[in-house]
């Protein structure tokens, strides 16, 4: 009996040690990490019996790390923008995600299911981009063309072309001008013609609330994820619904190639995409849900990019267009706007 | 100083190794990237960099703003330093403390304060409109003027400190002697003070010029992408385009500009010395 107990104890210790050896390394945006730790990472660690290593940083740094360690991956799964995911897929850094193992997959909005093809990525959140404006300074903003109109001249900030909001904004300005060519040449020229009327080309949306408060600017295109901070400022601000529609972007999960940790990574992805976790993230105003089953109160929904109708109405630039045109946009922008 | 030269060398070895392994070597590797072409050594990256009109604009803007900040801080610095050294010792200590106080505050906090002060509803515009110089608030933020003001405030204390210490080493009788011999204040400054404080001017000028040229936070916050300087451009090339070659080229240009400024200022100081 004593021998049996000892053997069982030894076996349990060994199992425990083995479980602790399981480590999942993820690469995520630096954004809202306290909330992610509380709502996603800690609860997952509690059920997976594994250690979660979280690496953060900007997209360029994180992508560079994945590429530099392609031969022996140090990152198992990453969350990136659709175009960064496509860039990584084209470089052969990713493997298809076995979506049959994702229980939550069928619950996702269609646009999140296979955004870059070949199941190389799964969308976990998306956001609308529209124009925020001071409703006490300007009656209304009805079109993306208003950004370059006389009423806002000298009182508007635009996103820099290097930001995630830059190209979608230019795309919508082009659409308002009747030119939807992916080269964005016409809207970039239009912005260049009005460069003196634009207060600044912002890089971080976090600085906009202060500029609005100081009356430095009256309007700027921003992602819906930043709307909360504007609302909290106590200023008379409104979210425009331009006649050309809203644009936006999507963030996706990807699986690095040959990481040897596929099952755990899939378990984590499924956990993050589950209705409960997506709902918790939505209620904390961290990420808009890509899971269509998530239901939130009107008050919460007001701050998010929420619902099938909104999701399907977004005029998103396809990831391959962003990837193929990005260098041209930057060159064109540098030559014309920043000259 | 040491009986055995080897002892002296041995004592400097740890510091030298530390600097070589952790600073000179990595910086050298980084900078060497800017000289690598497809067939070995190449200056193509520099030709590419300067062939862009935008990069030329950024280069000249950086040079102009840094020189302007150094020049204006020298003018203000001389006036301030002269006042400080003329004070009795207790007041001098207090004034000196006030001058160095901004150096103890984070540049980020200082620059954010300018964001509020220079804004349309800020202090500067309020005064300009109140006293009738302008009808409507001017746009100061995100212009070269804003970057200039921010950099000047950031680096002026360095110039004042350098000049104060140079003036304190000046013979006390030099200025009264010049005055007694009939020199006016302009002559006192150009013939007596300037030659006797040239070392302080060279040190202060180099610190202010190099600091302004390589500052990142101030141009990034007060200038934004409409007023790019070499340092903000470098950051953009690395974080947005992952273009380490262009970043190395910019880093090399900044190093060359800093050394050139120092050599130039030393040359000017030596020329004055010879003439004097």
- How many β-strand runs of chain B? 2
Order of helices and strands of chain B: HEEHHHHHHHHHHHH
CATH level 3 topology of the largest domain in chain B: MetI-like fold
Show unreliable segments of chain A.
11-19
**What is the CATH class designation of the largest domain in chain A?**
Alpha Beta
- Basic shape of chain B: globular
Given as residue ranges, the uncertain stretches of chain B (5+ residues, pLDDT < 50) are none
* Number of helices in the DSSP assignment of chain A: 14
Sketch the major β-sheet of chain A. 8 strands, mixed
Tell me the name of the CATH class of the largest domain in chain B.
Mainly Alpha
Overall pLDDT score of chain B: 90
CA radius of gyration of chain B: 23 Å
Question: Structural class of chain A, please?
Answer: alpha/beta
Describe it for me?
The complex is a heterodimer of chains A (339) and B (276). Chain A is an alpha/beta fold. Helix content of chain A is 41%, strand content 17%. In chain A, strands 1, 2, 3, 4, 5, 8, 9 and 10 form an eight-stranded mixed beta sheet that branches. In chain A, strand 1 (23-28), helix 2 (33-48) and strand 2 form a beta-alpha-beta unit. Chain A is globular, with a radius of gyration of 22 Å. Residues 11-19 of chain A have low confidence and may be disordered. Chain B is mostly helical. Chain B has a two-stranded antiparallel ribbon. In chain B, helix 12 runs antiparallel to helix 13 (244-275). Chain B has two domains: 1-37, no CATH class; 43-275, MetI-like fold, CATH 1.10.3720.10. Classes of the chains: A alpha/beta (339), B mainly alpha (276). The interface between A and B is medium-sized, with 24 and 23 residues.
Layout: helices, strands, pairs:
The complex is a heterodimer of chains A (339) and B (276).
Chain A: H1 2-21, E1 23-28, H2 33-48, E2 51-56, H3 59-68, E3 77-81, H4 82-90, E4 94-95, H5 110-113, E5 122-134, E6 156-159, H6 166-177, H7 185-193, E7 198-202, H8 208-213, E8 219-223, H9 227-231, E9 237-239, E10 247-256, H10 262-273, H11 275-283, H12 298-301, H13 308-313, H14 319-336
Helix pairs in contact in A: 4-14, 6-7, 7-14
Chain B: H1 5-32, E1 36-37, E2 40-41, H2 44-51, H3 53-86, H4 89-100, H5 107-117, H6 123-130, H7 144-168, H8 174-180, H9 185-196, H10 198-214, H11 217-223, H12 230-239, H13 244-275
Antiparallel strand pairs in B: 1-2
Helix pairs in contact in B: 3-7, 3-10, 5-11, 7-10, 7-11, 8-9, 10-13, 12-13
């Amino acid at each position: 009996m004593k021998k049996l107990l000892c053997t069982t104890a030894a076996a349990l210790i060994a199992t425990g040690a083995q479980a602790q050896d399981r480590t999942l390394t993820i690469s995520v945006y630096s954004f809202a990490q306290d909330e992610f730790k509380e709502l996603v990472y800690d609860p997952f660690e509690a059920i997976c019996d594994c250690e979660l290593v979280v690496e953060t940083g900007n997209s360029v740094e994180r992508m560079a790390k994945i590429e530099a360690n392609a031969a022996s991956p140090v990152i198992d799964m990453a969350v990136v923008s659709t175009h960064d995911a496509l860039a990584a897929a084209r470089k052969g850094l990713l493997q298809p995600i076995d979506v049959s193992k994702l229980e939550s997959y069928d619950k996702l909005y269609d646009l999140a299911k296979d955004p870059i093809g070949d199941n190389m990525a799964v969308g976990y959140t998306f956001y609308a981009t529209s124009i925020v404006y001071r409703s006490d300074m300007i009656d209304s903003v009805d079109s993306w063309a208003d950004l370059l109109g006389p009423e806002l001249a000298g009182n508007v900030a635009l996103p820099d072309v290097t930001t995630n909001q830059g190209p979608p904004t230019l795309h919508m300005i082009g659409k308002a001008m009747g030119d939807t060519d992916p080269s964005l040449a016409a809207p970039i020229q239009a912005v260049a013609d009005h460069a003196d009327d634009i207060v600044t080309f912002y890089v971080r949306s976090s600085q906009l609330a202060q500029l609005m408060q100081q009356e430095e600017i009256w309007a700027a295109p921003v992602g819906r994820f930043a709307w909360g901070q504007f609302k909290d400022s106590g200023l008379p601000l409104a979210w425009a619904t331009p006649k050309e529609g809203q644009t936006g972007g999507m963030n996706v999960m990807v699986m690095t190639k040959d990481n040897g940790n596929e099952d755990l990574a899939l378990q984590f992805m499924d956990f993050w995409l589950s209705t409960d976790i997506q709902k918790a993230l939505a209620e904390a105003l961290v990420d808009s849900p890509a899971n269509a089953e998530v239901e939130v109160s009107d008050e919460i929904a007001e701050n998010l990019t929420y619902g099938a109708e909104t999701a399907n109405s977004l005029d998103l630039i396809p990831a391959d267009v962003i990837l193929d045109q990005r260098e041209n946009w930057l060159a064109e922008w540098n030559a014309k706007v920043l000259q | 100083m040491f009986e055995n030269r080897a002892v002296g060398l041995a004592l400097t070895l740890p510091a030298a190794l530390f600097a070589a392994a952790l600073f000179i070597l990595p910086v050298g590797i980084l900078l060497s990237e800017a000289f690598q072409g497809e067939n070995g050594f190449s200056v193509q990256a520099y030709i590419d960099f300067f062939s862009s009109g935008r990069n030329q604009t950024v280069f000249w803007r950086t040079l102009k703003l840094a020189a302007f900040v150094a020049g204006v801080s020298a003018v203000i610095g001389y006036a301030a330093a002269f006042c400080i050294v003329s004070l009795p010792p207790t007041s001098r200590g207090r004034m000196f403390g006030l001058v160095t106080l901004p150096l103890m505050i984070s540049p980020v906090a200082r620059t954010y304060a300018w964001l509020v002060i220079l804004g349309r509803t800020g202090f500067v515009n309020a005064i300009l409109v109140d006293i009738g110089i302008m009808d409507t608030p001017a746009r100061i933020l995100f212009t070269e003027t804003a970057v200039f003001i921010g950099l000047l405030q950031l680096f002026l204390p360095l110039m004042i400190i350098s000049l104060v210490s140079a003036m304190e080493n000046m013979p006390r009788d030099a200025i009264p002697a010049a005055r007694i011999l009939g020199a006016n204040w302009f002559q006192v400054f150009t013939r007596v003070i300037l030659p006797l404080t040239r070392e302080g001017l060279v040190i202060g000028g180099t610190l202010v010029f190099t600091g302004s040229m390589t500052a990142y936070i101030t141009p990034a916050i007060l200038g934004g992408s409409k007023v790019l300087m070499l340092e903000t451009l470098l950051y953009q090339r690395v974080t947005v385009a992952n273009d380490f070659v262009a970043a190395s080229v910019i880093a090399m240009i900044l190093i060359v500009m800093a050394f050139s400024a120092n050599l130039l200022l030393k040359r000017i100081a030596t020329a004055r010395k010879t003439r004097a």
